[in-house]
Fold these 2 entries.
Entry 1:
Amino acid sequence: MLFNKKKTQNCVIIGSGPAGYSAAIYTARADMNPLLFTGFQPGGQLTTTTDVDNYLGFPEGINGIDFMKNCRMQAERFNTKIINESVNRVILSNKKGGIHRIFFDQKKCIESRGLIIATGSRPKFLGINKEKKFLGLGVSFCATCDGFFHKEKDVAVIGGGDSALEEASYLAKICRKVYLIVRKDYFKASKILQCRILKKKNINILFYSNVTEIIGGNFLEGIKIFNKKNKKNRTILISGLFIAIGHTPNTEIFKNELDLNEKGYIIVEKGKTITSKPGVFAAGDVQDPDYRQAITSAGTGCMAALDLEKYYLLQT
Ligand code: NDP
């Protein structure tokens, strides 16, 4: 028999984005009886975007919430047990075949030999009024997801790092004008991306600038900007505001249990999902600061399931 059928679980998955559900489908089909914790935001980041237009297999696109509902139904079809709770603590074994302890709902605990972490990351907010109100109504964290809705319109991107410059570069192909708002008088981004941006005629770079206010009724209509150098305020009319000031991986509960990099992402073996503890695997944005796409997350969810299956096979 490959997997333990007693009280100790074979596979616990933390996270209900594409990585978590993909891991659930694969582990369920491999007879591991997965148990998945959804976390506070069932469905993850995709439930905060409007339409998902770039996931393979949906020629007409699909609403983010519907997409994640489908993922959940597919995981349930293979008998994934879904728990609508957040995990608040873990104690991870150092031993091969050891038992990991997963705590939730204050004092409840589940034990498992296999654990797949797919807790994702969260984009950093600016911390100004109305930005959460207009999320999905003009404010976005993903140009490749939402840029198309602003075709031939004016938009703004905030940030001076690689993400912001990539977003601006992508949007410049679709939109009429892209304001790139940078708080310092220089970019943090790599030189190659800076060169690419400087060549685009429809990107208007505003250095030394901070967004102070978001304007709009039912949808975003514009922003107010303060220029720290000339001390002037300015209003820009835009239909889309893309915030790209970095992400924070959701790894707080793993800090003392797993090796994390300097930015808090879980370190995995190159080309694998294997973490620093035996039987513990990480998939999706929680271990990926670069790609952060639904399709790459789902791919690593599948990899984590196969890595866990291999972990058990090597013990028989
Ligand atoms: P970064 O942390 O690199 O950059 C964040 C940017 O946002 C900085 O310019 C920062 O300004 C600015 N910023 C932060 N907080 C605020 C704020 N409150 N208001 C206004 N501006 C703010 O994050 P990225 O997401 O750009 O990149 C994350 C990692 O992913 C990096 O290692 C990057 O290299 C990598 N990446 C690589 C890509 C590639 O290789 N193609 C593509 C995308 C990301 P300041 O400089 O003042 O701190």
Entry 2:
Amino acid sequence: MPIEFDPKQQVFHLYTDGMSYVIGLIKDIYLAHYYWGARILTVHAASKWRFGPRPNTPTPEYPDLTLHLDTLPQEYPTHGRGDYRPPALGLTVLDDGVSALKLAYRGHCIERGKRPLSGLPAAFVTDEAQATTLTVELGDEAVGLSVELSYALFERFNLVARSAKIVNAGTRRLAVETAMSASVDLPHDAYDILHLWGAPLRERMVERQPLAPGTFRFGSTRGASSHYHNSFFALLRRDATEDTGDVYGFSLVYSGNFLAQTHVDHDLSVRAMIGIHPFQFRWILEPGEAFQTPEALLAYSGEGLGGLSHMLHRFIRQHVMRRPFGVTERPILLNSWEAMYFSISEDRLLALAERAAEAGMELFVIDDGWFGERNDDTRALGDWTVNLEKFPSGFAALAEALRSKGLKLGLWIEPEMISPESALYREHPDWVLRTPYREPVRSRHQWVLDLSREEVVAHLMGVIDALLASAPIAYVKWDFNRYLTDVWSRALSAERQQEVAHRYMLGLYRLLAHVTERHPHVLIEGCAGGGGRFDLGMLQFMPQMWTSDNSDAASRIFIQYGTSICYPAIAMGAHVSSVPNHQIGRVTPLGFRAHVAMSGNLGYELDLTALDASERAAIREQVRLYQEIRPLVQFGDFYRLVDPFVTRDRASWMFVDEARREAVVFYFQILAEPNSPVRRLKLKGLDPQALYEAPELGFVMSGAEWMHAGFALPTLASDHQSLLIRLKQVP
Ligand code: GLA
């Protein structure tokens, strides 16, 4: 099995063809981290660490003066016995206040396959042979604590899925205050950290910076993974590039508050961890109870950031997105939002649908405004029944009308929310997430439902089941348009209030598990005021995300490029919208907008009835072209060629199929340059020996020539111009 235990050296070697992850026991007690990186064939544990006295450093195994936790690389560090770096686990024994822990090895087990995590999304296998799981049990006898660390190794990926289960195996009550999903101590070296930050309308901007001594942390305390920081980061050896070098990716399979943290210590080792944010988190464990952390994916690439992205993209499609969505094509959709906002009615939508059908689109999505008294964003969230004034025939008849045009029906919902002005609020004012003292803070005029409560989740299950039973609805856009405030639940005692944010997530996951089990063929697109919950937890249930509320193509180049570092194109909802763009007023050509949107999951979000015949013909052609390249975009390997975060005015990327027979290249000139230099574009990912022809350019070259010598880009005369170049192998 690709996880081996060497009892003599007390070492676990987890390996794939391309990676080794080595951990082991020191003095039969401490679970140490020995190595993570390119595959090694032998492990000589003693060569990995130097023991010896160090000045002013506590010695937990006195009289042995050579062991110090403050520098020992560990797998799940605690604090209180001489390790002063940030801990992975922090807890307090409630009746005496003790918090210094000593976790000691108790046993382990290695088994085929991978188990699901109770109540939480997690990477899955479709066949036991795809993964092997190591569980290491650590314990603190005196405290009555047991910790089960789980390592699921996916053999076709250089990837380990880690999580921890904290068990109160004693007789006293415990309060868990920090419980990271994974922590790794990488040896002395110079690393950079790359992370994805931003804000609404400019999500997932790429930032790479050197790590320096001290702590660097980011995360979210907003009740969702957030627009501001994505729950992913990569550590890169300083010499690593897009195509070369060692890169370590960390991604959390969770959608709530999270912390990502690195700490460079006085030995220049890096402790890297990711998990639930400890701020305002405290989970009480009664004797016999357990706390399961979310899962973190730890992926290694020796082929730079691009190599890491390829692996994560494939992995997310195959082992994170629920079946069948990671492996089946997504429909080209028309969304009503930017086309009509709240001014929707059956007649207007059917006229729009007529045009969408003419253009060859496949799915028609009615966005906000179809339910209750929802005529603007101040009311009716919670009242999920169709407004019969706007839709006199109801959705079953509408779905049938759409079907006759070749379109499926999709609907927008925002089930986690409640408007103060709604029938739901009048009936259940106590279901709002709020403290007992004052009215909760509004955001977009709305409040959040307390999903930590069973009856609220049960109500939403019933509502969504009824809606999906009312008509053949093929798609749901599940929105979440504000962050949590006033986090307090009347269902919990005072000492458990810091469990609410996580219990909210558990309630949401329970709801999503119910909906996706009951309605497995309904495609759910996640949205959170755009890309405010673009994370692996959501992607399990909602295999595509509305990437950003910013639909401007020039901005989207940056957003989609940044998003691609971790997430595959099939996850990114990308729409062609009208000009001047509704978010920033920019005017760009229709072709440019389409090329950006075709680089993700193509959709249209504009009033097709207001376009002239030539624009409609152009759109029909775009839809046809996308249908041809869709397998490449949605399942191919994505290569970044020109980085807009470096150039600011140009970008390029390409998709290559697994067999390297076909590719599609996109080049974007964001801003034109007068008398510009001759620029050569060099491709990636092709078979160097094979010949490829590019009909758009009119020539044939070997893969090696396309990749190493490249080709001179034609002059593009003005701002916002783009090229789409298809490559096909010729015999
Ligand atoms: C959010 C979404 C938009 C749209 C509106 C509807 O802002 O991000 O795409 O669905 O809600 O109110």
